[in-house]
User: What shape does this take?
Amino acid sequence: MSEPSDFDRPAPPAAHVARFVAAIGLLVAISLVGVAIDNRELALRRRISLDTFRADQLEARAARLRFELEERQTPQRLRAAFREEAAGPAAIAP
Assistant: This one.
């Protein structure tokens, strides 16, 4: 009978342990990468949320400033209208 090949021989117990440890290590590495990706995604979502909140605040501030500008210009418009009325219709006509 011929001598058994390397494929027919059972692996020594140390080789089984090494494969098992390598497989566990690979699973842990994949899990850690997944956790890191999730943390990055959450950080990006928080940043987007904060940026959206700040944009909303800036839009509200711009609206308040436009309103304030309109309020402050109203007396100037009234004075200009009174001056035109005081000057008479001849001053308004081209």
The chain has a mean pLDDT of 85. The two ends are 123 Å apart (CA to CA).
